[in-house]
Amino acid sequence: MSRLDTGSATLLGPGDDAAVVRAADGRVVASTDVLVEGRHFRRDWCGPADVGHRAAAANLADIAAMGATPTALLVAFCLPANLDIAWAEGLADGLTAEAALCGAAVVGGDMSSSPTLTVSVTALGDLGGREPVRRGGAQPGDLLALSGRVGYAAAGYTILSRGFRTPKILVEAYRRPVVRYAAGPEAARLGATSMIDVSDGLLQDVGHLATASLVGIDIRSDAFEVPDQMRDAATALGVDPYQWLLAGGEDHPLAATFPAGTPLPEGWTVIGSVHDGAGVTVDRKPWTGAVGWDHFR
């Protein structure tokens, strides 16, 4: 328990039957996610701290996508009996470090033996008196904006799956997401009409906004800058880099819609627009490639 820092919202941390977390708003935002070895991560690709960072980020980004500030994590860890204790400690370090990036803390959880290494995380958050930003509020005429990078983790996954370990910037993006957690509450304050964490692919997740809002959304391909490392890797591997940018997941940027004319601060990039209709298009045309991660494919 000494490995787990205590966040400012934690009134009572690990050590009792349950933790006590401050909920000044009177409402608690909650989200949960699970990582299964062989399905969501491989130990020969990621160190234990990397897995901790990834598990925490997947949940903390969901809290931010509601316009809330993350406050606490609960972690359930199922592990094989022969797992090295140092691996479990590294996982705890990664979870703690990622949570600390947004002022949250691991406040409790559970452990069990299992033939399959599994990490399940539940995140809690505080709305700070604001209404949650849901998926269903986008209106025709709104702008679609993105905060955070996209395509890097997908490129890193492809590189690792082909047996390579470079470029480092792409491989490390797969191992540890870089998430702008503060962008969620920032978007809420700016009047975002809808928002989502892009975890399964930009086209797929923006499609959830379009479906929930009963609108169509068009994404502009020229809004994305393809970095040199990504372009070079795509050429070497025979991949269209826009497949990574538009359909790759696990970078966890936030996509949000805003009323036209909203002054967006640094860190937000306008990538499209909302219109009457249905579904998601790219440059006003249907996208013919994959749109994102399918959990049951």
UniProtKB/TrEMBL annotation:
It catalyses: thiamine phosphate + ATP = thiamine diphosphate + ADP. GO terms for molecular function: kinase activity. Mg(2+) 2 binds at D33, D62. It comes from the Bacteria. Mg(2+) 3 binds at D17, D62, D197. Residues 15-125 form the PurM-like N-terminal domain. Keywords: ATP-binding, Kinase, Magnesium, Metal-binding, Nucleotide-binding, Thiamine biosynthesis, Transferase. Catalyzes the ATP-dependent phosphorylation of thiamine-monophosphate (TMP) to form thiamine-pyrophosphate (TPP), the active form of vitamin B1. This is Thiamine-monophosphate kinase.
